[in-house]
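Researcher: Here's the sequence for the chain we discussed earlier.
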Amino acid sequence: MNAPVSSPDAAVRPGSEDVPALVVRGLTVRFAGLTALDGVDFTVRPGTLHAIIGPNGAGKSTCFNVLSGVYRAAAGSVRFGDAELTALPPHRIAALGVARTFQNLALSPHLSTADNLMLGRYRLTRTGVVAAGLRLPRARREERRHRARVEEIAEFVGIAAHLATPAGLLPYGVRKRVELARALCVEPRLLLLDEPVAGMNGAERQEMAATIRQVRAALGLSVVLVEHDMGMVARLADEVTVLDFGRRIAGGAPEQVRRDPAVVRAYLGGEA
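Model: Thanks. This is the structure I predict for it:
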């Protein structure tokens, strides 16, 4: 696997001054009488990496699905700058510059890596369907620009050698990188990473952690990370929110959270 390039010039263009805070207040989600999230509060400061952790069933994925518009909240507020996200469908949230990866890969296996990444450019496409279908000159020019950006982002993430390969034929660790690259093709201001190293071996985990660190340095965007790898969380996160049975039980810097008695009980059971 190619290592990610170190120069931010090949990454998404920085725009940290345009990144607002993500403010979550009183977020509550219910499914047929089951409360999956119960009054959850946290704030993601601009340009920081905020990890959401907790045991299985704590509500982490539910929280991500609300942030990206897949689930609707029963109560509470999610504000990204001036925008209230809880009332918006997924495509409107994506248009605000919110992109996500998925714990279970959501790539099109028969499309090439390059074409999978081009799907991430959809919201940035200005040419109409008719012009694109007729291959008018302006449509061809726009496609060339988007494909050039796809190549830059692929180089940055370390998957440039795989652009012509169908995604379904790639090794699992490379497909996880393709998923990250497609999210970056959205040119996000807020990046939601759902267990980005799940299923990877030790070397792949280290490489992915380094890539995420470089993405932050190049973009200045905000990152919300759901991850079970506590070593990775400790290395990357500025702040951590801990959920258990849908409730926020702790928050703060990684080292502070790791010593919190409520967190120890949630992960290990019994008394701290």
